[in-house]
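Q: Please design a sequence for this.
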């Protein structure tokens, strides 16, 4: 895989994206965008449904014409690249949400298509091509699936195959539209960690549109955040949390982004003081808040201490009663409510 890097792999200048229609002329989704996608960075593109995330991805990928403005790849105008012998396939790879119909193809067959922009008229894989495919299957951790047919794979495995095909294309830029959609937690984590490795270890510039707020906050180097004003705000995740931008864009209801927790109403009418430390304390506090108790650090009606005793956890209520699980503790507290 190539490790060549460029400072700005993609740059947009006054870019406007959307659709043309018969009646109104233009349906503008995002306008006057001046964005930079840099080598070695994983950028997560976020925003509410229908805001134009897929449209921007398709426009950057050359699959849809911009309404106005310029897109540059490695300082070259996109029109210049399209008319060149190499074309866009040598500059970027794209993974879309379109369903795959060739389900009888093997994983090896599908990922090998990533090498087609480099093949001659005979369309034969060289020794170098085969080595790149082998290395990528290992890097994406799907080498054990190489002889499987697509209809034998889970949705998460198919998504990994499509990402592997994009990686095998060996471009400095990879664009992905909702790469973790409809996947379970393990597969979502695997894909986001893979994208981070590709950006950081191989100098790829990676842009992924996503609704995975929790994963984006923990994995992205930069966030592109689309607002209702057809503009895109950019910044590192922590800045956009702390300055209130995420709250303003998404208008969270019952969710505190600064703590990453759902807000619970203390309906029980009991004040609890919790003593302890580490993740045991945090999960205990979470359980009490979810159960409707009010957590107070000082004066309280009851005190719960979280302790490690002979390698196992126990919860002590008011220095008198020991419990081996939170469920048992809550059953006891029901008598006080």
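A: Design:
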């Amino acid at each position: 895989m190539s490790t060549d890097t460029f400072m700005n792999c993609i740059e947009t200048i006054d870019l406007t994206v959307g659709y043309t229609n018969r009646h109104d002329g233009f349906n503008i989704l995002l306008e006057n965008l001046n964005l930079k996608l840099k080598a070695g960075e994983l950028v997560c593109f976020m925003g509410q449904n229908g805001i134009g995330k897929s449209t921007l991805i398709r426009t950057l990928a050359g699959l849809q014409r911009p309404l106005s403005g310029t897109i540059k790849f490695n300082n070259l105008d996109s029109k210049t690249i399209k008319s060149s012998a190499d074309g866009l396939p040598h500059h970027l790879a794209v993974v879309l949400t379109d369903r795959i119909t060739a389900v009888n193809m093997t994983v090896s067959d599908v990922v090998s298509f990533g090498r087609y922009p480099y093949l001659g008229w005979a369309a034969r894989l060289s020794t170098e091509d085969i080595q790149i495919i082998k290395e990528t299957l290992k890097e994406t951790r799907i080498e054990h699936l190489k002889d499987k047919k697509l209809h034998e794979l889970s949705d998460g495995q198919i998504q990994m195959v499509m990402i592997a095909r994009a990686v095998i294309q060996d471009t400095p830029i990879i664009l992905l539209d909702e790469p973790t959609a409809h996947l379970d937690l393990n597969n979502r984590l695997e894909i986001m960690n893979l994208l981070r490795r590709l950006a950081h270890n191989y100098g790829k510039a990676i842009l992924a549109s996503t609704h995975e707020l929790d994963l984006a906050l923990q994995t992205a180097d930069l966030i592109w955040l689309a607002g209702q004003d057809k503009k895109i705000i950019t910044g590192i995740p922590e800045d956009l949390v702390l300055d209130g931008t995420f709250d303003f864009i998404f208008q969270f209801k019952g969710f505190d982004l600064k703590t990453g927790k759902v807000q619970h109403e203390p309906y029980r009418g009991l004040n609890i003081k919790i003593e302890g430390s580490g993740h045991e304390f945090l999960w205990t506090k979470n359980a009490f808040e979810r159960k409707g108790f009010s957590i107070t650090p000082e004066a309280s009606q009851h005190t719960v201490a979280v302790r490690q005793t002979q390698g196992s956890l126990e919860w002590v209520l008011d220095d008198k009663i020991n419990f081996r699980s939170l469920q048992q503790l809550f059953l006891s507290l029901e008598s006080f409510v």
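Q: Thanks. Anything notable?
A: The chain has two domains: 8-252, 271-336. Confidence is low (pLDDT under 50) at residues 1-6.
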